[in-house]
């Protein structure tokens, strides 16, 4: 798949990488997709602080590979969704 960015989008993407939040374009795209997926889950109001904490924890961890990190985010996000839908919040 080819994705075409506007010059502004490309500058914004490069700025995110320069700030050190992410090491690669792939990481930025994965984070963006995770955010879009979070917002698109029906009946998920989102617990933004928890999601951001999960993302920050994973990105700060040098022990996981990228695929392991995203798998752990998926697992924890699914658990949070089940908890949210059942009415229990930690």
Explain this structure.
With 90 residues, this protein is mainly alpha-helical. The chain has one domain (7-86). It contains 4 helices and no strands. It has helices spanning 7-18, 25-40, 48-60, 66-86. Helix 3 (48-60) runs antiparallel to helix 4. It is globular.
How would you summarize this macromolecular structure in one to three sentences?
The chain is mainly α. It has helices at residues 7-18, 25-40, 48-60, 66-86.
Helical amount = 55-70%
Count of helical stretches = 4
- Shape from CA axes? globular
Poorly predicted tracts of residues: none
What value does the Rg take, in angstroms?
Answer: 15 Å
Mean pLDDT, nearest integer? 77
Features:
single chain; 90 residues; mainly alpha; 69% helix
How is the secondary structure organized here?
Elements: H1 7-18, H2 25-40, H3 48-60, H4 66-86
Helix pairs in contact: 3-4
